[in-house]
Amino acid sequence: MKIKENILNALNGQIKAEFDSAFLYLSMAADMYKIGLDGIGHWLYVQYREEQDHALKIFNYLVQRGEKPELLALEQPVYEWEEPCDIFRLALEHEQFVTRSINELVSLAKSEEDYATDVFLHWYVMEQIEEERQVQDILDKIRMAGENGNGLLFIDDELSERKYEPIDQETD
Ligand code: OFO
User: What atom of ligand 1 comes closest to residue 17's alpha carbon?
Assistant: First the structure.
């Protein structure tokens, strides 16, 4: 069964939102590498790769449903960050925005009785819990470290351990 146009548009919009997220995290990583916080930069770079996977999972779902995904123009990240605290505060706001966007998509799928898309989106609903929690945890630690440079270096070291794990692209 073909996907209704309004759902298709919303899913294409979510592909863009996920690639925008990737771009945002990559620009944050660039700033952290620039000031020598390579562990935080590494964490953000891994996040960039995960966000690309989030976008590709929707891309692959549309292909599987016999649709042609539309790739919309991406936003250029406009900020320059110098403080990790600012980065993770913005990252949290951003993830909360993405959560709202996913929830709206779920509501749309339900109201249009597109049960396959509704089930497909459950993965994103659960993923957003993790996305918000991990950014919140890092923000809390950075706030706790405050002006303590050693505390920040400890966090930098901890975040350098993050491993990239490709996200399963199967939708069935
Ligand atoms: Fe794709 O979850 Fe973050 O933005």
Answer: 4
